[in-house]
Task: inverse folding
């Protein structure tokens, strides 16, 4: 057998030659290129339509302007367009999770500071599907969707509420951990109604009542979300470890923590509330109640 080209190779070469001839014979005007598709089909059908479109654009007709959009906290400016006063803006509610497995400052060490047992334990729990995490609730501003307020809860010895407002994504001690934001829903409450809802929750969540298994930051977020959006569902991994501990100990875990563990197991001991307010003021974030209607 000879080494000449096969029939398939000749067929491919002929198709390439035909394509080159058609390209050389085709007009190279701007309208032809406007009407062409990427794959080369539909050239004639689209050319006339695009020429008419180009004529309209060059006749000096004013373009219809889209309403200016407001950027939301997730960066999408196409959702919150300018609206009239008769259409109330629906406020988004998010759940922000801080994962302890990426905690940059870990003071729990074994064997003369050589084994970061805190990081190992939290990473193992997350790998098993029972992550150790802290959660806060983020609420948009009614007046400006680009602004967001973030609320959290901690325990401590002070006989005051354990609810605090921090700068978005900057919870004290956890600002540089891995974070995950989950969209939970929207509410049409006014700013005054949102403030009232937060105040009602604050009165129920006092710092001395904190319990690592029975009344922690994740329980608080669930209560606040239900106050804002009745029927909203939290992610299933939130508080999975607390539920499992209560189940396997027949409910004795919360009792043991409240009786024998300082501050109900709160590792911050009431320091976050003060630190969050100080950092928020330094960053220029006003109190949520002072925001514009």
Result:
């Amino acid at each position: 057998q000879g080494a000449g080209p096969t029939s398939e190779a000749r067929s491919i070469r002929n198709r390439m030659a035909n394509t080159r001839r058609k390209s050389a014979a085709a007009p190279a005007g701007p309208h032809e290129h406007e009407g062409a598709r990427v794959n080369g089909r539909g050239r004639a059908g689209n050319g006339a339509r695009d020429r008419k479109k180009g004529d309209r654009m060059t006749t000096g007709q004013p373009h219809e302007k889209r309403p200016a959009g407001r950027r939301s906290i997730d960066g999408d400016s196409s959702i919150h367009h300018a609206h009239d006063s008769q259409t109330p803006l629906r406020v988004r509610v998010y759940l922000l999770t801080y994962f302890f497995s990426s905690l940059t400052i870990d003071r729990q060490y074994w064997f003369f500071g050589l084994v970061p047992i805190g990081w190992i334990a939290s990473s193992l729990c997350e790998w098993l599907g029972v992550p150790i995490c802290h959660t806060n609730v983020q609420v948009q501003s009614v007046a400006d969707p680009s602004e967001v307020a973030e609320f959290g809860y901690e325990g401590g010895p002070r006989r005051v509420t354990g609810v605090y407002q921090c700068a978005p994504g900057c919870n004290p001690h956890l600002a540089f951990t891995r974070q995950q934001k989950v969209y939970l829903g929207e509410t049409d409450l006014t700013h005054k109604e949102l403030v009232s809802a937060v105040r009602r929750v604050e009165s129920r969540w006092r710092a001395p009542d904190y319990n690592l298994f029975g009344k922690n930051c994740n329980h608080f977020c669930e209560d606040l979300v239900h106050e804002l959006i009745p029927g909203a569902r939290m992610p299933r991994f939130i508080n999975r470890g607390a539920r499992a501990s209560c189940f396997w100990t027949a409910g004795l875990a919360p009792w043991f923590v409240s009786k024998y563990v300082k501050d109900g197991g709160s590792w911050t001991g009431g320091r976050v509330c003060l630190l969050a307010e100080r950092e928020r003021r330094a960053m220029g974030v006003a109190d949520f109640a002072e925001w514009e209607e």
